[in-house]
Specification:
This protein folds into three domains: about 90 residues, SH3 type barrels, CATH 2.30.30; about 130 residues, Galactose-binding lectin (Jelly Rolls), CATH 2.60.120; about 130 residues, Galactose-binding lectin (Jelly Rolls, Sandwich). The strands form five sheets. It has a six-stranded antiparallel sheet. Strands 7, 9, 10, 13 and 15 form a five-stranded antiparallel sheet that branches. Strands 16, 18, 19, 22 and 24 form a five-stranded antiparallel sheet that branches. The protein is rod-shaped and about 100 Å long. The chain is mostly beta strands and about 375 residues long. Helices cover about 10% and strands about 40% of the residues.
Length: about 375
């Protein structure tokens, strides 16, 4: 019976042969293939195939080594080598071990939809992902490993904000994976691979991550439709927000200081999204007005007469809101008070503020709970 070492060599050689069979069907050869023999010789030329249990290579022009000795003889003829004579094989400068992987590079930007990698994977396939690059969100630079803070509005609220994440399949209930700058994993299901950055807001984002995906081929599968799966096919768009006709309730708590001209809630809204506000707490709306609740003080004085407060019709210190659009413009401010149900009339980021024209002597803060349900991306 063969020893364990001999069995290992036999298994490795079978994998080598299987890899060669796959590669002969998927790559076009040039005169840059090399067989390294166990006796120290190398033969360079065009690898033709595995014929009658032997590697067949059409020998190319003689090649000199650093010692000046030619390692290729019999240019133009076909030479045959048995597997036990071969140490390794390189195809166009790449080893068969490297060529066991399908490699795809994808640019992952931050937008309303997940990025379709164009790669369909099968359950139990092994994938390696490496990512680099930077996404700029406002003035913040985000790498694939994300920031040291989380974002409650992101697909993974407890993971790092901006972290590269992935999901297999277009089912909105599919498990989302944390990937970062490097990860190797086994696919837990069949489907298209999608990637995005773990951040709720995308209207202020630019740039992208460069992501390399390496998928190991199953060289032992008898019925592997890898060639069919390698063809580029347009996948189904996977929105980061719910589909039309569905809604996902969310909740966010925000502190709005009395000095605030605009606190970023971290909530991106679209026209038709419904929001419910509940506010508590007290702020000081200047030394003259004093302490007030979310409804504000009595609407009087210069700010009321001249309309210098953002919402002149409500009192100083009242809680108000507005929407900042992607181009930096802001919507008409609207009064919130202690409670309000509001339907968004613009696409953009929701901000909360204090209704005042002089914030220099203000203090205190409101605690605001925002409940909202997105109605999904609209069909174009």
């Amino acid at each position: 019976m063969p020893s364990g070492a001999a069995e290992g060599r036999e298994i490795n050689m079978k994998k080598l042969i299987l890899a060669l069979v796959v590669l002969l069907l998927t790559v076009s050869f040039a005169a840059a293939d090399t067989i390294y023999l166990r006796d120290g010789r190398t033969v360079q030329g065009t690898l033709i195939g595995f014929v009658n249990g032997r590697f067949a290579i059409r020998v190319g022009l003689p090649r000199s080594t650093t010692t000046g000795v030619s390692t290729t003889s019999g240019a133009g003829e076909i030479q045959y080598f048995r597997p036990n004579e071969v140490d390794r094989v390189e195809i166009e400068g790449r080893s068969l071990d490297d060529l066991r992987f399908d490699i795809r590079t994808v640019q992952v930007s931050l937008g309303p939809n997940w990025i379709d990698t164009g790669l369909d994977v099968r359950r139990n396939e092994r994938l390696q992902i490496r990512a680099s690059g930077t996404i700029l969100a406002g003035r913040t630079r985000i790498t694939p490993d994300g920031l040291r803070q989380s974002d409650s509005t992101a697909p993974l609220p407890r993971a790092a904000e901006g972290l590269l994440i992935g999901v297999i399949g277009n089912d909105l209930n599919s498990a989302t994976m944390e990937i970062g700058s490097s990860r190797e994993f086994v696919a837990d299901g069949d489907g298209r691979l999608y990637l995005t950055a773990n951040r709720g807001s995308y209207t202020d984002a630019r740039g992208s991550f460069t992501v390399e995906i390496r998928r190991e081929r199953d060289l032992t599968a008898e019925d592997d439709n890898i060639f069919d799966r390698r063809r580029d096919r347009t996948g189904v768009v996977r929105p980061r927000r719910p589909r039309v006709g569905t809604s996902v309730p969310r909740e966010q708590e925000v502190e709005v200081p009395g000095t605030s001209r605009g606190v970023d809630t971290g909530i991106d809204v679209r026209v038709g999204d419904q929001l419910t506000f509940t506010a508590t707490g007290r702020v000081i709306a200047g030394s003259r007005i004093g302490e007030v609740g979310p409804e504000g003080g009595r609407s009087s004085g210069f700010g009321s007469i001249m309309g210098t407060r953002p919402v002149p019709t409500v009192g100083p210190g009242a809680l108000i809101g507005f929407i900042r659009t992607a181009d930096g413009q802001v919507s008409q401010p609207f009064p919130i008070g202690s409670q309000l149900t509001f339907t968004a009339n613009a696409d953009g980021r929701l901000l909360l503020a204090i209704n005042d024209d002089d914030y220099s002597d203000n203090g205190g803060a409101f605690q605001v709970r925002v409940r909202y349900a997105t109605t999904g991306d609209r069909q174009q």
